[in-house]
Every structure is written in structure tokens, then in C-alpha cells.
UniProtKB/TrEMBL annotation:
Keyword Nucleus found: no
Name of the protein: Hypoxanthine phosphoribosyltransferase
Cofactor dependence: Mg(2+)
Matching Pfam families: Pribosyltran
Enzyme superclass (EC): transferase
GO molecular function: guanine phosphoribosyltransferase activity; hypoxanthine phosphoribosyltransferase activity; magnesium ion binding; nucleotide binding
Gene: hpt
Family: Belongs to the purine/pyrimidine phosphoribosyltransferase family.
Recorded GO CC terms: cytosol
Organism: Aquicoccus porphyridii
Length: 184
């Protein structure tokens, strides 16, 4: 399979991300100030860097859990289906829960996850997304906290991949295809 060549242009610097996380963490600490335990749920795999930085700014009793969902087009029903590939290890009934997502794009993934977790009767269920692409939204969902609103661009870095690559960039970059194909 030929691979498209691309370059990555920095869009959000590591410094801006860190400053934004500090500000968001202050608001989250305030929202959950009385919690006996906050279950922070990272959606794999894209949120792994974000959740690591976020929890270190939360001066609260936290427990970390992960959930992996995959979404794909269902041509038969012209809709998107979301499948849970890895469920939480712990129970969330009666618990304070914060779902951490890397990007909300169409919103189908977050919408599905929120319905699923909501059906388990947490005490409070809130969401944070590092990035939001509101112009792409199809499902009626919005995170309670958003790091940055971005235009309809394909981005990588800070945990977010393009075909499993570039997750280890310390910043968020925009993928710009250079047009030439090279053998994989
Ligand atoms: P949604 O269900 O369309 O909101 O999809 C959300 C998921 O799609 C994110 O958690 C990402 O894994 C992936 N995604 C959406 N936009 C991008 C992007 O620009 N770069 C890489 N992955 C993306």
C-alpha cells in the first residue's frame, strides 16, 4: 500500500497546552472539591498523555480507569456505530466521574460513552476534551470543559495519532499532505 507523505505544522505548543491544563484543573478541582473519590476515565488511546498531565494538576483523591471505544461507519444504516473494546475495571455507581477525551469530532464516541456510563448511575458525570471540532459535530454532545476549539483539520501529537504514529510529539500539530506517494 502506498503511503502519503506529509509534514506536521505546529498548531498548539506544549507550553500553551500546559497553561490551559493548569487553568482547567483549577475549575475541575472547584467542581469536585467535596469528592471522596473522583474516578478519572481516560478514553484510549488518544487521551493517555492528556490524562497523565491532567491528573497531576488535580489535587483531589483520584482513581484512574480506562475505556476503549472504536467507532466506524455502518453503511447499512448510514450511521456511526460505536463498539466498546475495553470496559472499565471498576464500578462507578454512586461515584463522581470525569471522562477524559482527546478530541470530540462528530461526537458519536463521546455520546455513546456518556449514555453507557450514565446507565451505571454515577453520582456526577462530567467530561473534558482537550480539543473540540464543533464544525464536524453530528451527535448532540458537548464536553463540560474544552481545552481548545480547533477548525476542521487533521491533527496529531500529545497522544493523538495518524495511523498509530506521532502520538509522542509534545505539541499538537496539523497534518499537511505534501501530495507524493511513497511505498510503505
Ligand atoms: P468522534 O466519534 O467522531 O467524535 O471521534 C472521536 C475520535 O476520532 C477521537 O477520539 C480521535 O481518536 C479520532 N479523531 C478525530 N479527529 C481526529 C484528528 O484530527 N486526528 C486524529 N484522530 C482524530
Amino acid at each position: 500500500m502506498p503511503q502519503r507523505t506529509y509534514v506536521i505544522d505546529e498548531m498548539i505548543s506544549a507550553k500553551s497546552i500546559a497553561a490551559r491544563i493548569e487553568a482547567l484543573a483549577r475549575e475541575i478541582r472547584e467542581e469536585f472539591r467535596d469528592t471522596d473519590k473522583l474516578v478519572v476515565v481516560g478514553l484510549l488511546r488518544g487521551s493517555f498523555v492528556f490524562i497523565a498531565d491532567l491528573v497531576r494538576e488535580l489535587d483531589l483523591p483520584v482513581e484512574v480507569d480506562f475505556l476503549e471505544a472504536s467507532s466506524y461507519d455502518n453503511a447499512m444504516e448510514s450511521s456511526r456505530e460505536v463498539r466498546i473494546l475495553k470496559d472499565l475495571r471498576g464500578q462507578i455507581e454512586g461515584r463522581d466521574v470525569l471522562v477524559v477525551e482527546d478530541i470530540v469530532d462528530t461526537g458519536f464516541t463521546l455520546d455513546h460513552v456518556l449514555h453507557l456510563l450514565g446507565s451505571r448511575h454515577p453520582k456526577k458525570l462530567k467530561t473534558i476534551a482537550l480539543l473540540d471540532k464543533p464544525s464536524r459535530r453530528e451527535a448532540p454532545v458537548r464536553a463540560d470543559w474544552i481545552g481548545f476549539e480547533i477548525p476542521d483539520e487533521f491533527v496529531v501529537g500529545y497522544g493523538i495519532d495518524f495511523a498509530q504514529r506521532n502520538r509522542n510529539l509534545p505539541y499538537i500539530g496539523k497534518v499537511r499532505f505534501t501530495g507524493e506517494d511513497v511505498p510503505a
